[in-house]
Every structure is written in structure tokens, then in C-alpha cells.
Amino acid sequence: MFRSYRRWKRNRKINKVKEGDGHQLKPFRFWQPLTRSLFYATIVEENGETHVYAVNVHFFSEDETTQLYRDGTHIATSSLPATFPVPGGVIEVATSDYGMSRMEYVTSEGARQLQPDKRSAEGLRLRFDKRFPKISASIGTCAITILLLSIFLGLPQLLEGLTQIPWVAEHIGTFQSPVTLPNWLNTTLILLSVFAAMERALTLKNHWLIDMETSYWDE
Asked: Residue 82, class by beta-carbon neighbours within 10 Å (0-12 exposed, 13-18 middle, 19+ buried)?
């Protein structure tokens, strides 16, 4: 049943894919890390030939689409989240409010993450991870800690605020949060959570609980 549902969702996304117009992929520029993501996948096709597929995402675009290229030539476009059929499987793409949340080449044997352009924000973060693995791991751990704190400290306060709405209070009841933080601390926690979410997006890490606000949800 669940397999059929996942297959239906995947086919629904594939049906959104439109044929490309053949234009050439523009190189990644040094001023684009905050507005653009570019990833690559080297795929061996059935005839034995190797081709490089590239997925290009422009953030803040009005149409919220992503583009697929084969050896630098535009072959497909789709709205986000997207599933592009490619030789051997599909490329799945999704974004959140803080960046990329999914960029994988999925086959019957499993899934592997695409490689980011070395000049992109994701590519720079990956290079930092390879050069300073211990510091990188510490940053990742801090991001997880901050997001979990944000959930466990923020949700009770949010729930209390919602139950103060007259209709909710009358028909459901009220809730008293066991945690009440001063405004300055709540603001600090929000700002830290934004940076933590951006860190998770740069490394394409996603967990249903840790990244509750930015999790990848299949539509």
C-alpha cells in the first residue's frame, strides 16, 4: 500500500516535468552562493556512455522551478519539488525556506547525493568539511542541539499562545506552558535556529524531528 502511494506521488511529480529548450548551462559565478545552487551527477547510460547531468536551482525565482541539463544542454524543467526521470532512476529535488533539502539520484539500488558545484555555498561547505572535519562535525552537532532546543522550548510557548485565542480557549481549552522565556532569549533562540537551519540545508541533512520546520514533505 505504502509503495503504491509513494509510486503515485513520484509519478505525479514526473508528470510535471516539461521538455527543455536546449539552452546552455551558465557557469556558476562567485556572487551567486546565496541565490543559486548547482549540483552534478555522472551517470552511465544503458549504451555504456557516460554523461554529466546538472540540476540548477535559482532561489527567490517567481516560478519556483528547477532545471535539468545533460552535458550542459537544457533538457527538462519542473516545478519544485521535482522528480526528473534519468537513465537508471530519477533525480529528486526539493527546497526549504533555508536552501536545499533534497538532491539525490535514486535508483533501485538506493540513493546517492549529487555533487555540488565547488563555487556554490554547498560546495564551499563541503570543502570546509573535508579540510576541517572535526570543526565541521562540531558545527553540525551545535546545529542539531540548537534546533532541538528550539523545538522543545518553543513549541510549548507556541501552544500556549494558540490556546489564548478566544475560539480555541472556548471549544478546546487552554494550555499553560511549563517553559516561559524572556523575549530577548526567545529572539536569540530564533536567530540561532535560522543559522542552524541554514547549516543543515548547506549539508543537505534532514530529519523529520530535528528539521521539523524545514523537513522534506512529498506533496
From this structure: buried
Q: Where are the domains of the chain?
A: 2-117, 132-202
Mode of pairing for the β-strands spanning 18-19 and 73-79: antiparallel
**CA-wise closest residue to 125 among 99, 105, 95:** 99
Closest CA to 196 of 214, 181, 217, 216: 214
Q: Say whether 95 sits in a helix, a strand or coil.
A: strand
Burial class (CB in 10 A: 0-12, 13-18, 19+), 16: middle
Question: What is the C-alpha separation between 172 and 169, in angstroms, rounded?
Answer: 6
pLDDT tens-place string over residues 156-214: 888 888 888 888 888 888 888 888 889 999 899 999 999 999 999 999 998 878 887 65
For the whole model, what pTM was predicted? Answer: 0.88
